């Protein structure tokens, strides 16, 4: 099992940083595309990941999301990629599956129109988002839905963490 691996559905998985050997396993499991949301200086980064993925015949795409500064444009790029790759087997990762789980939650909620609680369970299986990521998710939801109040679980996070929007 790869660090914090979570299956979203058949052919779509999120995880923390895979090792070189685990990239071979990902390929053997039939995945064709890797989307990496980590930055080159992220914890546990595999410096040669793009080269290793290429040698294995995997398409490798990096969207370098700075931990303290995720951006709406990065989520939009991520969402467009997943829509284009909807018939491919896609593995999404970052260092610990924190960035990846939040981006996947937003994709499932806003693009796939899945139930909020079901989609958010992917996040809480890995971590409880901090202030920065709670704010980011709220901003993306507000942009896509045109609302001021966050969904219920965001409201709870705001009370628990003292987050101000």
UniProtKB/TrEMBL annotation:
Protein name: Protein tyrosine phosphatase family protein
InterPro entries: Prot-tyrosine_phosphatase-like (IPR029021), PTP-NADK (IPR055214)
Domain of life: Bacteria
CDD domains per UniProt: PTP-bact (cd14503)
Name of one Pfam family that matches: PTP-NADK
Organism expressing this protein natively: Parathalassolituus penaei
Positions of the DSP-PTPase phosphatase fused to NAD+ Kinase domain: 13-112
């Amino acid at each position: 099992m790869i660090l914090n691996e979570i299956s979203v559905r058949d052919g779509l998985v999120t995880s923390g940083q895979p090792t070189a050997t685990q990239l071979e396993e990902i390929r053997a499991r039939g995945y064709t595309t890797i989307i990496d949301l980590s930055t080159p200086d992220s914890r546990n980064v595999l410096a040669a990941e793009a080269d290793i993925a290429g040698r294995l015949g995997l398409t490798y795409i990096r969207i370098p999301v700075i931990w303290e500064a995720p951006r709406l444009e990065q989520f939009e790029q991520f969402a467009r990629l997943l829509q284009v790759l909807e018939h491919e087997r896609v593995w999404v990762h970052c260092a610990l599956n924190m960035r990846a789980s939040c981006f996947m939650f937003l994709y499932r909620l806003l693009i796939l129109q899945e139930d909020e609680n079901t989609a958010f369970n992917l996040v809480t299986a890995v971590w409880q988002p901090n202030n920065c990521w709670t704010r980011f998710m709220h901003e993306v939801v507000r942009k896509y839905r045109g609302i001021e109040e966050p969904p219920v679980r965001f409201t709870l996070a705001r009370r628990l963490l003292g987050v101000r929007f």
